[in-house]
Amino acid sequence: MKQSIGIDGPAGAGKSTIAKRIAAILGIPYLDTGAMYRGVAVAAKRHGVGFTDEETIAKLVGEIDLRVRYTESGEQHILVDGADVTGELRTEEISQGASLVSRVPAVRDRMTELQREVAHEQRVIMDGRDICTNVLPDTPYKFFVTASAEERANRRYKQLLESGQSAEYDTILHDIIRRDKQDSERAYKPLYCGADTKLIDTTDMTIEEAVNAILSEV
User: Which of 89, 102, 103, 149 is deepest in the core (most CB within 10 A)?
Assistant: First the structure.
């Protein structure tokens, strides 16, 4: 396995933005692993399977053909059974669905397998919930990017308002705390910062400062 870069952390900490900037600076592909779990959630929705129906979800993930593809410009797309579902991945329903289906061991095992295949083929930077502790345990480049729940909610609140959508800060904060609990307390491969992983707290950082903190280690 080539020396890829792993970034873990809770929702809204800025992992994806940071990873994308580092990918551009280093000239390596960025793999959004969260989009892969969102792809499973989309597949479940299309098949009429409830996100909490773990037995059926486990069977479904073994039957669908989920693939990652990159455009000529380097943009990542998710295909499920040949259909490009990238445009369906960012709704709140699918966000919550992804957090729920990711608790299913069969889902995590299948996504881990696919993510490792990508990392075997080329050096990449990827972010998620168990990249450093599970997917890329042997890479020396492991980071845990976090921020306070309040700051993450505030960022999401501003993002929604700037995009012209309605938003309530308290609702967003509640959802973030709930997702943190789901991700960190799930029985199978939960979110946590490993002992050999460098902690990057972005609460009082700009994106540029966080990017530089990681680049200084790589």
Answer: 102
